[in-house]
Amino acid sequence: MKNISKAEELLLLTIWRLRDKAYGISIRRKILEDTCKDYTYGTLYDLLSQLTRKSYVEKIVGKSTPEKGGRSKTYYKLTREGIQALKDALEFHRLTWKDINEFSFEKI
Amino acid sequence: MKKEKESKLKPPRLAEWIAQRLVWTEDEISIKEDLREEYEYIFTINGSNKAHFWYWKHIFRSIFPFLNNSFCWSITMFKNYLKTTIRNFIKQRTYTLITVLGLSIGITSCLLIMLYVKQELSYGKFHTKADRIYRVGVETDRPQGRSKTAATPFPVAPALKEDYPDIENIARIFFAPNELVQYEDKKYFEQNIAFMDPDFFKIFTFPLIKGSALNLLEDPGSIVITSSMANKYFADEDPIGKVIRYGNQFNFTVAGIIENVPVNSHFHFDFAASFKALNQDIVGFTLDQWGAYLDLYTYVLMPENVIVDEFQEKVQPFMQSHHDTPGVTRELFLQPLTSIHLHSHVNSEIEKNNFVSNLVVLLTIAFFILIIAIINYINLTTAHSSRRAKEVGMRKVLGAVRFQLFKQFMGESICLSLLSMCLSLVFIKLLLPVFSSLVGKPVEFVYSENLLFLGAIFLLSLLVGALSSIYPALYLSGFQPVKTLKGLKDVRKSSFVQLFFRKGLVVAQFVISLLLIIGTLVISKQLRFLTNANLGFEKEQMVIIPFFDDEVNKKYETIKNELAVHPNVVNATACLGAPIEDSNEFVISVYPDGRDAGAKFVINLNIIDFDFIDNFGLEVIAGRQFSKEFTGDSGKSFIINETALKNLGYTSPEDAIGKKFIIGINYMEGTVIGVVRDFHITSLHEDIGPLLMLHLPVWLNSMIVKIRPDDISGTLAFLEKTWKKFVPDYPFSFSFLDERIDKMYQSEKQTSLIIRTFSIIAIAIACLGLFGLAAYTAEKRTKEIGIRKVLGATVSNLIFMLSTEFTKWVLVANVFAWPLAYFFMKKWLRNFAFQTSIGLTPFIIAAAIVFLIALLTVSFQAVKVALANPIESIRYE
């Protein structure tokens, strides 16, 4: 099982949540809404290119839209490895947090 | 209306530009688009100021991730570049080999020369106190002129110490004449015997291997030897405490062993005996004479923080206060230890010093060779550029910008030059012994000890790679993708400037080659002139047998008579120093107007036997030579040469006969009995000086035997047998006079050999480049040649056509090279008092050589193209 970083995990999850509407702006906005983390595009694309290189996500060139002056957006989609990585992350969470809830810490 | 809105919505230009500069990955456009979209969104909601602020803030916060990301991608691209580079190398093996070989030969030659120069510059620096050590010399001002000598009289050191207590330390070293050294049955004639003050080892750094540093050489009977001498005499024994015999009177106990004196020391010794053992018998004078300048050198160690110039001024009156002779002023001068080897050219130097100008010549050659190699690389790469055209086109179509391609080709040639560097490091190790014999002294290179140098080499090869690739990289990255992908041959029209540049490079290569060849030819011409010059005496088949020994001197007459019996011995004579001998310069003062009037000038002295003048074929132009019939000749009669005649002010040779004057040996008075025609008494670097010859049998120290040219080895064996018969204890050593004279020009020969070797290398590299260029031109004109052939051109026509272009360049190169070469060679010849004329021949020969080589290289390609089937040539492209 290959561990992915927290940021990568967040990105993968967001892309998955956005389904086929995951591209630069939507990903950033979603992360901002869900976690209040303000990622810059620099960080975002850095992570995205890393994930692409690890082939957890793939790029899909979308249809060109008239609003963008005929340019097409690049969408991101999870690959099978990406989904597997998310599953692994979930499993990892379950294992590490299995007997712990928010009250556990107060007992000590 | 819509347009206006759009322009308003544009994010700040500068910020956008910064973002674009920072990102050069494939995401560049996506990022830009996303930023713009978000900007527009914020703009519509919060207005332009907020949007602007957001945009700037965002860019600012992104700088680091942008860079990080881009860097990751450059690595990926780098891998790709590396792959294509390696593929290209493998695909074009011959081409890569030629370029790498050319570059590495260039770098190797350059590095070898740099190593040598580095060694020459490092003289004396291995002493830990090197920056505080100075050699004391004496500058003498006589009416005839000033002269500087490195040697000092014996009493200088103790007197200096007494007069100037702020000197930290002072020590003397005396180089004794060659002497026999013996331990048990091992007996050798040693040349590097020195006597030194005990403090010598405190001033200089000569690491002691064995023995105690305490009180070293304090005992008059002690001697320190080098490790190679320890091996020579003692092999496996422990030398400490053993007694060796010096000459036939002295015994020395070995007190210590030091490491061999390094190459980069301006003096070398194998034996260092205690100075206290020195006495009149060894030196030949009493040690308190202020007027005796022998092979004695004084070194001072100055305390730190002493300004040497001030001290120098302080010691100026020193010599006058101790040794005052009327009409003569003497001053001490100090030479920093580290500058002696390259900058000191005074009289009585210990060893032959080098000249900075020699190093400059060598460095220039190294620079030239490097330039030739770089030019070579430029020409070869541009010539082969068409093979890379498709790749360039493809990359450009896929989105590469010019700068990326530029970087790629830069990187490629830097790879090549680093490869060449590795190769040249191997070459250096292999060639170092050859190079050492070329420069005449061992040049050392230990990788681990020269880390700094290795770093410099690395930087140098980076520089070479970068320099040689700027033009090709610019050229290649400028290809137009459409043309290259269409498969057009002439993918880029060369502008006039580019053609001019490339041809200029070739011309520059030829100019350098021509300069080097002309230089080589002129130097060897001068050397031939020196060795063949009429010296004024016979030098062929003269065997010189030195004997610095009283025993032998006593038996000289007997040996001489015995030798003369042999049919192959023409005659035998003896003298104090054979003509043209640097080490045996005896100079004395002349007092023509009586002792009280002071010395008029100095004169070279030679002590000769009766038949010396006959045997050497000297011409007596007035008077007579020494003769046994005149009993008063010994020590009372002088024979002088023409120059001395002029200096003494006599009008004619006949006028001089019978004149009396006093010379500086015990103020001896003598009568001139003969005048000989001038002959060379020193090397041809110098004019013929005044000479005085005396007959003083006890001072004779070299036997000179003229033998017949047949059965030389038999005659030599006879000489040795006879020698052993009379003086079995004294070793027999001999040398030929002409060989010794040849040795005088050793340094010129060395220079000539070095220049010759490196010019051959330079020309070879230049040829490689020319070959590549010829191939390129021929290839470009394949179709033209095919058509010409179809229309009826003959093979010879075509070869002529293709070759003329290059011959033009050679001609142009000659125009530049000739005046330059003339200028440089004139300058070099000024080192000699007797010069050959430069003449036209070296220029014509050099031009012919370059022309022929160029023609051969070019016509090889031309023939190949011209012989090709025209149908194929036309179909080509």
Number of helices of chain B: 29
Strand order of the largest sheet of chain A: 1-2
Instruction: State the total count of DSSP E strands of chain B.
Output: 24
The quaternary structure here is heterodimer
Low-confidence stretches of chain A: none
Describe the largest sheet of chain B. 13 strands, mixed
Radius of gyration of chain A (CA) equals 16 Å
Shape of chain B: elongated
Mean pLDDT of chain A equals: 81
Major sheet of chain A: 2 strands, antiparallel
Describe this structure in words.
- The complex is a heterodimer of chains A (108) and B (877).
- By secondary structure, chain A is an alpha+beta fold.
- Helices cover 52% and strands 14% of the residues of chain A.
- Chain A contains 4 helices and 2 strands.
- Chain A has a two-stranded antiparallel sheet.
- In chain A, helix 1 (6-18) packs across helix 4 (80-97).
- The longest helix of chain A is centred in the C-terminal third of the chain and has 18 residues, at 80-97.
- The radius of gyration of chain A is 16 Å and the shape is globular.
- Chain B has 877 residues and is an alpha+beta fold.
- Helices cover 53% and strands 15% of the residues of chain B.
- In chain B, the strands form 3 sheets. In chain B, strands 1, 2, 3, 4, 5, 6, 7, 8, 9, 10, 11, 12 and 13 form a 13-stranded mixed β-sheet that branches. In chain B, strands 16-17-22-19-21-20 form a 6-stranded mixed beta barrel.
- The two termini of chain B are 55 Å apart.
- The chains are: A alpha+beta (108), B alpha+beta (877).
- The A-B interface holds A 23-25, 28, 40-43, 45-46, 48-50, 53, 68, 71, 73-74 and B 23, 25, 27, 29-31, 33-35, 37-38, 58, 61-66, 68-69, 72-73, 76.
